[in-house]
Amino acid sequence: MSQNRDRIALLVRQGESEREDLAMAVADGREEIERRRAQWKAASMIATSIAVAASVAYRLFGKASLAARLSRIATAASLVIGLARGLRKIRRFW
Question: Which of 9, 29, 35, 91 is 20 to 30 Å from the Cα of 72, by its Cα?
C-alpha cells in the first residue's frame, strides 16, 4: 500500500511539473502571437497610410485632377496669348 501511495505522489508531482511546463509554453506562445499580431497591425496601418497618401496624391496631381486641368488650361491659354501677340506684331508690318 505504501508503494501505491508513493507511486501516486510521484505521479501527482510529475503532473504538476508538466502542467507548469505546459503553462509556461502556452504563455510563451501567447506572447509570440501577440507580438506577431502587433507587427501585422503596424504593417497594416502603414500600408493603409501609404494607400491613402497615394490616393490623395493621385487626386491632387493625377491626369484628371484639378491641378492637371488647370495646367492644361494654362498651357492652352499661354499658347493662344503667344499666337495673338505674334499675329499683332505681324499685323503691324502690313
Answer: 91
Identify the CA nearest to 60 among candidates 49, 68, 71: 68
Q: Are residues 54 and 73 in the same domain?
A: no
Per-chain mean pLDDT for the chain: 88
Residue 68 is predicted with a pLDDT of 79
Say yes or no: 38 and 14 in one domain. yes
Give the domain range for residue 30: 1-61
Taking residue 73's Cβ as centre, other Cβ atoms within 10 Å add up to 10
* Torsion angle of C-alpha atoms 68, 74, 80, 85, degrees rounded to 10: -150
Q: Where are the alpha helices (DSSP H) in the chain?
A: 2-61, 66-92
- Number of domains, the chain: 2
Q: pLDDT digit string (tens) for 10-41?
A: 999 999 999 999 999 999 999 999 999 999 99
